[in-house]
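<derive_structure_tokens>
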Amino acid sequence: MAERLLKIIVVLSILIVLPFHIGHADEMENNKELWRDLNHSSDTILRYVKEGKYGEAKQLLHQFSNQFLSIRATDHNITMSELHVITSVYEEVEEATTSVSLSHQDRVRKASKLRILVDVYEPSQEPLWKKTEISVMKPIEDMKKAVSDGNGQTFHKAYSEFIRSYEIVRPAWSVSLPYEIFQKLEAHIKYLEQVQGTSKSTKMMLEHMDSLEVQIQSIYDEEKEEVSDPSLIWVMLTIGGSILLGLTYAGWKKYKGEKEREIQRYRKKRG
């Protein structure tokens, strides 16, 4: 009776866990497909803006909005902060496709911002923001040189270029970097904004920019952490759980057999 009950428990455990795993894996695959579509749309929007096809870009933005609504309804891992960031950048690109006061370069920067941000959510390849290293790091070198040379005009020009480049990757970093690292970076840049044009000593300015340079370089140099596929984890748990139950059953069966043999030996001795 006990043996039959244990078999039933093993079978029921598999029947309960396996469908849950399959449903979870299907949901994750569906979310990946939605992000992949959104990523493709953001890439096409950027291409249209670069080509000056602002009308086509605006039309595709409506499709992007519908795709994003589908993701909001299914991907429960998106935080309210991330929703705010994505929505804000979307609105910037929408403005870029309609505003007559923006230059073509400003339009491209805003569309690039959306492209790099959305790419963060499709982790099948190296993030696009990794390719912005030169455009972000070079102005820092130029600022340091300008400070050392005492050239305020060159410093402000390099500073403006740095801010323009940083603003393109900022949304992507805000949702992908650890909170503490991003906040520290923001503090560095806020301080730089406050002290530019002031009478801060050359040594103090260079020390701050060295610190900023080291932190940003560490972000670009950091190797992509290997993230286990959640669906694979569920497979392992399912199989592992089944194996554990199977081993428990086999162990119990072995114990029962040895116990019965011991009882038989005892009976023979008594007889």
